[in-house]
Structures are given as structure tokens and as C-alpha cells.
Amino acid sequence: MRRFIVAGNWKMNTTKDTGSQLAQALAAEVPKEKTAVEVLVCPPFPYLSTIGDIVNGSGVGFGAQNCYHESPGAFTGEISTEMLSDVGCRSVILGHSERRHILKETDADINLKVKKALDAGLQVVLCVGELQSERESEQTEAVLDTQMTGGLEGVNSAAFDKIVIAYEPVWAIGTGLTATPDQAEAAHQYLRNWLKDHYSAEIADSTRILYGGSVKPDNAKELLSQENVDGALVGGASLKAELFIPIIQAAV
Ligand code: PEP
């Protein structure tokens, strides 16, 4: 039985005040005791400590949106996994499409980060997904294969209790376009089979695969009711408690 995850990726949004208010509203709403849904927020780096203090002891976890693959040292402007752990962060999003396509991160870069984060004991939310042109030219599965192979190179089975995959078709991120439930399910099924072929049936069965791409309260239930969809990675709608809470509730 896979436990759902609903994760909010705040991206480069919020201020200390608006982020704090959002975190307070979520912490007040999400039950403290373990429920069927794991809830996570991923604020910008400067607010991690503040948000971490607010959600501490609540049912809301917090994670980062990126990390660097080296241990602390002379890497100006970067953030280490040690720093994330130091502020109580337990998860990190890696390979988000904005980092792949705007910041030009390669699968090799992402793979180094995945391995470093896993070594540090962090939960990794590894994002994969195709561009619109790749979908139109029927390259979706080839792209997912490349990103899974590249991102997970050298990662062994034992690490999978800390790995979550997020399928995020790039054409659906922040655009208002959403994959249909059938499109999402087909990609998730492909990813689950990929895990079976490259790891094992047990890992394929137990690994959570989230959908991300313009998830909103009105489409969450249908997407989340697909057999191979184990939750959502939410961008825009995670910035408003009145939108994010119904998405969490849709997963219950
Ligand atoms: C995201 O940033 O991961 C995302 C899915 O964004 P949005 O929900 O805004 O499409």
C-alpha cells in the first residue's frame, strides 16, 4: 500500500510573511497524526528555517527545491545537503523542469545531486517529464527512459525507501494545461514498469509516483484516483491554502 504524498513547490515565491502565514494555515489544517497523505512544502532556501519552525510538530513536512552535490566548502552561492539537514529539512526536489530547462541542469548534474542527497539521508523527489514537442513527436517514453536512467545511475535498490518520482510533463507546468487522467496514468504506468525492469517488482510496487502539472482542486480528484498516481507535486496552487488544502483532501 503506497502512502499518498501531496507536495507544494513554492518555487521563487512568497515573502517571509506570506510564506509563514501559508505554513501556519496548513499546519493548523493538516492532522498531526499519520494519515493516508504525507504533506510537504518546499519553500525557497532563505525561508526554510522559518517555515521549518512553524511546521515543526505538525503534520506538514518541509523540503528544499534543490541542493548542491558537494560537501560544504568553496562553492559560492550553493547550498549543501548538510545545511538542509541542519535546518531539519528531510526532503529535496531534484531535476525539476525549470532547473533542467532554464538553469540547464543535465541528467549527469542531477544524478550527482540525487546520490549526494541520498547519502545525506534526504528523501529525493526526482522530477522527470517531456516537452510538448517531445510528446508530439511520440518521444515521451524515450525522454522518461533517458531521465530515469541518467538521474538514477549508480543508485541501488536499498535507496528506494527514500526515492519518490514526480512525473511532470513540461507542457503542463504553470500553463494551466493538465495531462488528462489517461495521459498521466499511461506515463505513470510506463515509469512503474521502468522501475520493475531496472530494479524489481517490489520497488516498482512500493515507489510513489506523483503527478505534477497545473494540479488544481477541480482536477485533483480525478488525477489522484488513477491507479498509478500516488499523489501530486503542486506549484501555483500550493501558494494558497484555500487551493492546496482541497488538493490534500482530494488525496484522502
Ligand atoms: C511544479 O512546479 O512542479 C508544478 C507542477 O507547477 P504548477 O502546479 O504550477 O503547474
TrEMBL record:
It comes from the Bacteria. Keywords: Cytoplasm, Gluconeogenesis, Glycolysis, Isomerase. It is found in: Cytoplasm. One of its GO terms (cellular component) is cytosol. SUPFAM superfamilies: Triosephosphate isomerase (TIM) (SSF51351). Pfam families: TIM (PF00121). Pathway: Carbohydrate biosynthesis; gluconeogenesis; Carbohydrate degradation; glycolysis; D-glyceraldehyde 3-phosphate from glycerone phosphate: step 1/1. This is Triosephosphate isomerase. The keyword RNA-binding does not apply. GO terms for biological process: gluconeogenesis; glyceraldehyde-3-phosphate biosynthetic process; glycerol catabolic process; glycolytic process. The keyword Isomerase applies. GO terms for molecular function: triose-phosphate isomerase activity. Belongs to the triosephosphate isomerase family. Involved in the gluconeogenesis. Catalyzes stereospecifically the conversion of dihydroxyacetone phosphate (DHAP) to D-glyceraldehyde-3-phosphate (G3P). It catalyses: D-glyceraldehyde 3-phosphate = dihydroxyacetone phosphate. Homodimer. The lineage of its organism: Bacteria, Pseudomonadati, Planctomycetota, Planctomycetia, Planctomycetales. CDD domains: TIM. Substrate binds at residues 9-11, 174, 214, 235-236. It is an enzyme of class 5 (isomerase). The active site is at 96 (electrophile), 168 (proton acceptor).
